[in-house]
Amino acid sequence: MEQAAVKIVNAHKAFSNTQVLKALNMTVPTGSVYALLGNNGAGKSTLLSMLLGALQPEQGDIRLLGEPVSTRLKSRLGCLIDAPAFYQNLTIKEFLSYCAKMKGLPKQCIDEALTIVNLQAKQHTRLKRCSLGMKQRAALANAILGQPELLILDEPTNGLDPSGIEEIRTLIRTLPERFNTTVLFSSHVLEEVEKVATHVGILAQGNLVIEGSLPDLLDDPLGTLEVSISAEHTDKAQTLLSRVFKVSTPEAGKITIHQIDKSLCPQVYKSLLAQNIDFYQFRYHTQSLSKLFNNIHLSMHKEAEYA
Predict the structure, then answer these.
(1) Into how many domains does the chain fold?
(2) Which site among 16, 163, 273, 288 is 20 to 30 Å from 213 CA-CA?
(3) Measured between alpha carbons, how far is 239 from 285 in angstroms, rounded to an integer?
């Protein structure tokens, strides 16, 4: 069995009396593009900081590329965490030359990184004159200097325009095949994640509540049917449909049928017509990352209410 690029077992981290990460287990397969998702305050930044050695867990074991976290790994890792700090009077190329020297990397890797992030034409621009998007590209170029085995990125498309976002998406998606690089990145843009990631982990309340390959997580033959009904018929429709299906009413005039096979939608349609229930919207949705994410947080919120 191939060794995982990242392996975390039973990791705990607290600040003062606040438990941020609780018995966290996580596996990032080698060669994957793994997206770490979570709301603000879920513990994403803390987790990424622990992977890079900036924070230490109180308990648990963390392995990167089969080794404990240490400075010995720095030549095998690339990272982009938080807003990058720059020497503003340097040009982009001078900045990358300095970074390459600090990492002990040859000069030829600089031109390669500039090409990958499409900054060749801007390499002699001083950083103080760069846009936020250009600075983000320069920071990403630094992260991929020397073709690292593991790349850790925190919100890598921040500050980029739509075309820049698409370019970085393509880069991230192709890194495993081009350079044998495993990518772990955090994001709050679920649509972006679905276009890039091969694997996903969802962090909530200090726990990784679900992880796996994206196709497996979204492989649900059942979907959701949303019906918009005249407000006065909402109760009648709910009574009728809840005899057969799992139904919720998020608001008056809205009926949601959960975990329903698409082939049963005509039956619902005919039942509503037969009972003279007026409806004006009838939409079926298959599983999406957004729905999975929202359902997990809704479920945890309800559990907390009844705890």
Answers:
(1) 2
(2) 163
(3) 22
